[in-house]
# Entry
Amino acid sequence: MKKHLDIKQNKTKSVHAVRYLPIPLLLILCAFLLAGCGRKAPDPPAYDTEETDEEAGKDISNTEENGTKTPGAGDTEGDANAPTPFSHALPQETSAESDYVFPKTAPFIDDTGKSMQRDGNFLYSYYDGKLIRFDQETEETVLLYQTPSTHALSFCFYKNDIYFVERTGYDSLDDRDTSLWRMRKDGKDLTLLQGDIVNAGTVRFGDDYSIDIYDDILYLISYTSGYENGDYITKTANLYYRLEHDGSVSEVDESETLYGTLPRRFSPVFDKDFPSFPYAMRNYGYLFVQDSNKVLYRMEPASGKRESFMICAADSFAFSGNLVFLYSYYADTATLLNLDDKTTIQLDDTLSETLYNLTVSASEQGFYLCCDLPEEDSSGETLYRFHILRLLPDGSVDILAADSLRSYDDSYAAQIRNNSCILGDHLYYYAGDSLFQRLMRRSLEGNADPREIESFLRYPAASPASVHAEEKDEETQIEGGSSVSFSIRKLFLEEQTDADKAINRTLTEVYTDFESYVEDLIRDEQEALEEDPDFYESFDYASNYDFSLHASLDYMDDDTISFCCYYYQYYAYAAHGYYWSDYYVFDRQTGERLSFEDFVGNSAAIVNTATPYVEKMAGWDFDSEMLLDISRFSLSEDGYTLYFAPYDIDCYAAGSFLITIPYEAFEKEL
# Structure
């Protein structure tokens, strides 16, 4: 099987020659409720104009009065008809009532840094390693850029070009696997601007940069959070690169950027549905910031003038012209602010419900909300219905679409939450199954069914295998005691070859063993209660058993296929449940199950090469023999993967680890 190593190495090189969310994991801001916050819209907020940093005694040595240009400041002083005093702010209508500090603004419709973005009549999107352009008029899709599906990529537009920051999908020892690129909007003239950039975070946590541009500075945006002098604040972990006249880039210090204007005690608003500093300055001429209590302000960076909105702290923000929509998951509270007359708008009762899996898109008039709303069926069970709502400026809500009731499942809403946007009268998003990702379009005018625009194979296989799933969900009541919940999702290959049949036999044994284990547990529990019917009476609460096995396709190329079997088990009255995954890698030609040694051929080389990568992530010492466990091993487009369950290399609270070791690391060893 050593030939497989050569195949993987050649594949990696060829993919990079062509040049591929999870999404990112979304950072949820910690929210603490201020006095007076409740489920309904709060009383109208008090708007204050804060003292400037000069009045507060802050050093303002980087302002123009002291001879240093504030980032983004323009020379508009003395011009009565000038727009807001910043070089990229959009022109404003001139009137006696114009407020050039915080003027009326256009809706926030830019998706800079997201996986889906609008640009004229085109929709650009990145998913599973493919950056594509969709023409809304002709419905033509063009693949602009392709890279391994495990890579994270964030892009933005500037003039006639696309700039993007890409991070590999493997773990590394030096944490410098990010690169900065430029290409034309038609995909031509791909240019590497900067390589060897320090990563925003680990592959495990999905901490990656978003990207934006202002005043010829590329902003690679990443935030962290933590306590500073007793205050819990969001901190910048950004990188900045100036666009030079010769097409190259040079690194810039934060003091020369918009983030260098942040006053003490203040943080950027970190929310994917809210304008970033570069976007806000480019379009509005001011910034949105928060203090340590997560109260929202807008600020003019040149003068330091700030206007606060004393409202309930929120986790999710959206902005559209003179409207700000805020939602607190902790308080189930939605708020709509009008920035023109400084009022809070009473919202439709629909928004008094908990909005599960909420995503918000701004429009010319109000907002589009995609969310799950809970309902009870005839038996009293709580189910969920996916909705698309239009929130209008007067606080009323139109229901544009509503799906059928279903059990709670985050996967559908998560797809829309992380990979979607509004273009014209349609919602675009990605949906997928075991083999394909599909670009979908759903009309916002009427409750029409979604339509597939294009489909893309998720794995690097010229001849993909076909798979199908079987699911079972049961609950067994144990007389006089608890119950046992049991669910299983089986995945099988369509048996087109003898190898497919052999692979299915192995998978069937796995599923049968699990089902037999649960059946034996139920029988043992029933027998134990026959011996001691009063066993559970000593407990003052009810607790049930819960067991599940979920099989999924993990990887597939023309030579190999890999399945992941995810297990969860909870025993009645235990402190917490436990979970783990077993991986099964097969040769597609023979049906044989493959181990790490089958690819590398040398167990010593595996231990020597993999150990530093695992040690870097581990919280305590581990036995190197663990690295050879066949059930930990799988593959990706970037490298070999090793899985570690809770307690394997760290405590339960640290969770599980999936560590990807680049194929190139084994080239050096061999």
Q: What stands out?
A: The chain is about 15% helix and 40% strand. Residues 498-531 form the longest helix (34 residues).
